[in-house]
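hey can u check if this looks right to u? its 266 residues, i copy pasted from the old doc so theres a chance i mangled smth
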Amino acid sequence: MISYPFNYKRAKSVAEAVEMLRNAPDGKLLAGGQTLIAAMKMRLANPSDLIDISGIKELNYIRVANGAVAIGAATSHFDVYASAEVKKAIPALSALAGLIGDPAVRHKGTLGGSVANNDPAADYPAAVLALGATIRTNRRSIAADDFFTGMFSTALEEGEIVTEVSFPIPEKAAYQKFPNPASRYAMAGVFVARFKDGIRVAATGAGPCVFRVPQMEAALAKSFTPDAVAKIAVDADGLNSDIHGSAEYRANLVTVMAKRAVAAAA
């Protein structure tokens, strides 16, 4: 039997995790492990060290202040979903967290892990981008528009750790997705957020990376109604196409989910 040994280390602070990463060039951070553990089981990842940051208290919190909801990177999906503060400030964010995976995934998976992984079909990136969130790391703050750079790719640099995501509180917002019946990942999900100074619309699942839909944002700025986006066709070029749905099918789903999200928000 072939074995793939690795060292398991448990960090007590962000600073200690950074130092552990520095001393393990092939090391990987472990928070909820919902993607990494699966990749290791399939022999798609073979890190020399697993650095567990799930128990770092400074990364697990929810705070509402100064017009924003700040959530620590190690906060679980379930805690975001169940938080009375999140439900009151941004109910759409709470609802989104409640749609992620199944109860086991929601109790183990973390906000920071999802954002840093940037799976094309993950739910959180849509909220991060549509709400214009700020991703804070152990080194800097990164605007949502600059963070997601491609499939499983972000602006994070080597040794950089997500510590917090700060979501501005919108006037209205909603998230709707069409889930894959097996995985519950979004085949297409749309998050719509209305702020005093404009509208932001972000789609996940349909393309290789979460993206904004400027045509819908412009139309909703004039009329925040489902009809405003009903006839806006998203270009299927470059969208995902697989056995579950063609690029054209997913393009249509973006419009359908946008209509539902606007209806839910309004």
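Residues 7-52 form a domain with the Uridine Diphospho-n-acetylenolpyruvylglucosamine Reductase; domain 2 fold (CATH 3.30.43.10).
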